[in-house]
Design a protein that fits this description.
The complex is a heterodimer of chains A (421) and B (453). By secondary structure, chain A is of the alpha/beta class. Helices cover 39% and strands 12% of the residues of chain A. The termini of chain A are far apart. Classes of the chains: A alpha/beta (421), B alpha/beta (453).
Chain lengths: 421, 453
């Protein structure tokens, strides 16, 4: 029996060995098979793959729009000299006044007290990472064009990265500086984020109120100076006067902006200093609050924090109330009753959906857009069938001219225009 | 009979196993069991791996990243579908249910169809010039001239839904920026339309009710300038020579010989034209509109146009062919007030222009507006927003990017920048920053040569 056992045992071990070997081979083979399957047959891959895989982008992607060649970034370190705008300009007020005198055809004020305003906004020169993002950018610019046409404001739509270090929300700083210096005829630049929509087409900014000030944010003095809250003011929609003071403010604002270690370190400082601010790289808004607190005496007397109307209106408390507003109120208030601006902070309609979460906002953006569009279409006798659809219907028989408009509203919509002879 | 795992026992009989088993020593038995278990575990492991890889079943942590993505993609698809299908102007052909006499079907002629439909752009107005003058004199705050330049309103637009092709929306955005830039530089007002004002006149005909509505609502505007969304400004310095058009009401790009002698369907281009705000224009729109209503009218009109215009393929009536036909067949009524312009590219067909931009920058300068430096480059037939264009997609998109950057260079130079290449979104400084920016501004000439450096 023992021999039989041993034979059996040997056989058994032999089989075991083969089995193990086979198992291992099978295992390897199947693993490779599985991996290959996953790699090649992703016909229902993620949205990012769909977007980047042809039908949404030019085929010669690397040559047309997206620069595939990645330059090795050289980040400014903490020991490098701080970022500055150069060359430094010291006598802007004087030079600008002289230019304005020599160029009376380009006044900085119309009919006495209305300043010439340039609304500045923009977006990336590359297509959005999702299939409908660019459509919402288009709606956003149409919305701004409508407001500006009614109120005699010019628009500059930026699609260029002026400075490789000032990326993301910091890109507005070199842009604003460049525009201020190139457009002495402009009295105020009005920066507006691409995700902010006008929702009160009749509201006129009370420019006279800002005569003593050079910088106007939506915000609250308490929240900034007492509470040190990082959203005590909002840099998504603000006015900046074209003057030496503003150039110097930009100089003071910019050093924490360069991407890389400088911005990261500044972010830590902001998180520690400002109430409830999470830890992430420094953003322009936090740094502005920081500057206003720490350099209070230098700047705060020329900064106005406006809260009597929604120069910025956080969308979450607003978009569900539009029908109620239409029922109870009318355009022209600009405040909570009929907000001037509905700002879709955090929605990121241009970003990759799978990274930032499926659209919570697109339908809400449509509502805000239609709500504003109704105020324009009304002038022509039309209106959206509801705030949730782009279908329009005729609501009034044809009439002639804005002055014959039967509505108080339509008359209000033509308060100003650009220039007189 | 029972088998234990993969144990092979030579010589064992069918009934012999239990007996044989009892003879195997305990330790051996345990070892065998252990080996069997090992093999079973190995097999089981491989099976699990394969199953997990292919159907995602059996993962103990719940949904895999792949199935998560899948849910997200399904959600996104559903939402995109909802957004896209919102507001599609579907219109039943109103003539489908009309019948003549006792028969339910009838062979309509064009004239019968037009009469049956009885379409009109709006109530007839016959004294618009007087109404307008009266309004202007009552409203001195809204003059029709600014600094002795007639007020112009540039009108463009696109459908309210996202493009079938996402890249189309991106180029609509760039095209809008391009128009905003030109209008800002030249003091022209701009309006972007995204509403179907009249479901019957949808598509390329949608501009007619829009133009009428805008003329009547903006008496302060002297000229309405319709521009297609696929037309880009490529000469930012060129100023319209309005003084040439004092006695005309419609300024349109075209070729008189193609129009009068050949009756060609591309003799004129309605992608970029100016229409004066006056009674004559309202009358023209009324005479132009009848071929537009969607359905049988447009189809039958299309046949008439194909028969009468040289080179026209067979398809439903379009506004351009209809206008050409109208101007040819009613020459005496309309032609005296129409200026057929071809001394500059009020419309410039893209195909012959886009490859020459570098040459233009080398030899010429902005401000010319003609073939040396085209005023407008118009991407007829590219249709980046839709699914089917007449030209290869790649060529169209590359060319549009080049045209956009070519125009953008002329704007960026005001700030000292230029694109690194006509296909590149990146920019570089072409003029050093200075401590005296106003001196630079004084010397800046919009019509100076562009240096790519």
């Amino acid at each position: 029996m023992k021999i039989a056992d041993r034979k059996a045992g040997r056989w058994y071990n032999y089989i075991l060995l083969i089995s193990t070997k086979h198992t291992v081979i099978c295992f390897l083979f199947l693993t490779i098979l599985v991996l290959c399957t996953r790699y090649f047959t992703s016909s229902y891959g993620t949205l990012v793959q769909i977007v980047t895989n042809s039908s949404y982008l030019p085929i010669q992607q690397d040559k047309v729009v997206v620069e595939v060649k990645k330059e090795v970034p050289h980040f400014r370190s903490l020991t490098d000299p701080a970022y500055t705008f150069s060359p430094k300009i010291n006598n802007w007020d004087l030079n600008r006044a002289k230019w304005l005198r020599l160029n009376p055809a380009f006044p900085n004020f119309f009919s006495g007290s209305k300043p010439r305003v340039l609304l500045v906004t923009g977006s990336s020169p590359k297509p959005c990472a999702n299939p409908v993002g660019d459509h919402y950018q288009l709606k956003a610019i149409k919305n701004k064009m409508d407001y500006c046409q009614i109120h005699g404001i010019e628009i500059y739509y930026n699609m260029a990265f002026l400075d490789a270090e000032m990326t993301g929300f910091w890109a507005k700083l070199p842009l604003l500086r460049s525009l201020l210096l190139s457009h002495p005829e402009v009295e105020f630049v009005w920066w507006m984020d691409s995700d902010a929509f006008f929702t009160d087409m009749a509201f006129e900014i009370p420019w006279d109120r800002y005569k003593p000030y050079n910088l106007v944010f939506h915000g609250w003095d308490d929240m900034v100076y007492k509470e040190k809250s990082w959203y005590g003011l909002n840099t998504g929609s603000f006015f900046m006067r074209n003057c030496q003071w503003s150039l110097e403010l930009l100089d003071a604002w910019v050093p924490m902006g360069p991407n890389g270690p400088v911005r990261d370190e500044a972010g830590k400082l902001m998180a520690g200093f400002l109430k409830d601010r999470p830890l992430f790289e420094a953003d322009d808004q936090s740094v502005m609050v920081y500057i206003l607190i720490t350099q209070h005496d230098t700047w705060s007397d020329k900064v106005y924090l406006e809260s009597s109307y929604c120069l910025h209106g956080y969308y979450d408390g607003i978009v569900h109330r539009y029908e109620h507003m239409v029922e109870k109120n009318h355009p022209g208030f600009g405040d909570d009753r009929w907000p001037l601006v509905t700002h879709f902070v955090g929605c990121k309609p241009c970003a990759n959906f799978t990274e930032f979460g499926v659209e919570p906002c697109l339908k809400k953006i449509d509502r805000a857009f239609n709500f504003a569009d109704n105020q324009v279409l009304q002038m022509y006798g039309f209106s959206h069938e509801s705030l949730n659809t782009s279908d329009v219907k005729q609501v009034r028989k044809e009439w002639v001219g804005p002055a014959n408009a039967p509505d108080e509203v339509s008359r209000v919509l033509y308060p100003y225009h650009k220039d007189t002879d | 009979m029972g088998h234990e795992g993969m144990v092979f026992k030579p010589g064992s009989t069918r009934s012999g196993l239990p007996t044989t088993r009892s003879r195997v020593p305990r330790g051996r038995q345990i070892q065998k069991t252990f080996n069997n278990v090992k093999i079973t575990v190995l097999c089981g492991f491989v099976t699990l791996l394969v199953l997990r890889g292919t159907i995602g079943v059996g993962n103990l942590t719940g949904s895999t990243p792949e199935s998560d993505d899948q849910h997200v993609v399904e959600d996104i698809d559903r939402i995109l579908r909802e957004i896209r299908t919102d507001s599609e102007p579907e219109l039943e052909d109103p003539l489908k249910f009309l019948y003549f006499g006792n028969s339910t079907s009838h062979n309509w002629t064009y004239t019968e169809a037009v009469e049956a439909i009885n379409y009109s752009l709006g109530p007839t107005i016959s004294d618009w010039n007087q109404q307008r003058q009266a309004w202007l004199s009552q409203n001195p705050n809204f003059p029709n001239q600014i600094s002795s330049k007639p007020r112009i309103l540039l009108v463009t637009g696109s459908p309210p839904n996202p493009c079938d092709n996402a890249i189309g929306d991106h180029y609509l955005l760039k095209s809008t920026k391009n128009k905003i830039d030109y209008c800002r530089l030249h003091g022209i007002e701009i309006l972007y339309n995204m509403a179907h004002l009249d479901k019957e006149l949808a598509g390329y005909w949608a501009k007619l009710p829009l133009l009428r509505r805008l003329m009547l609502s903006h008496p302060e505007i002297e000229w309405i300038w319709w521009m297609d969304s696929d037309a880009l400004f490529t000469d930012m310095a060129f100023e319209l020579p309005l003084q040439k058009y004092e006695n005309h009401n419609l300024i349109i790009h075209g070729y008189p010989d193609l129009l009068f002698e050949q009756h060609s369907w591309i003799a004129l281009n309605t992608g970029s034209f100016l229409l004066r705000n006056c009674q004559w224009s309202l009358d023209l729109l009324d005479a132009w509109a009848p071929m537009g209503p969607k359905g049988i009218v447009r189809e039958l009109a299309g046949k008439i146009l194909t028969a009468n215009l040289k080179g026209r393929p067979a398809f439903e009536a379009d506004d351009q062919s209809a206008l050409i036909y109208l101007l040819i067949s009613q020459q005496d009524k309309w032609l005296s007030k129409v200026y057929v312009e071809n001394s500059y590219y009020l419309h410039g067909f893209w195909s012959g222009l886009v490859d020459k931009y570098e040459e233009m920058m080398e030899k010429h300068h902005p401000g010319l507006g003609d073939e040396r430096w085209p005023f407008v480059t118009h991407f007829v037939g590219c249709k980046p927003c839709g699914s089917y264009g007449d030209y290869p997609v790649e060529r169209c998109l590359n060319s549009m990017e080049r045209a956009f950057n070519f125009g953008d260079n002329q704007v960026l130079r005001l700030y000292g920048f230029a694109h690194k290449g006509l296909l590149s979104p990146k920019i570089k400084r072409v003029q050093d920053q200075t401590a005296d920016p106003l001196q630079v501004k004084e010397k800046l000439d919009m019509a100076a040569r562009i240096v790519m450096g």
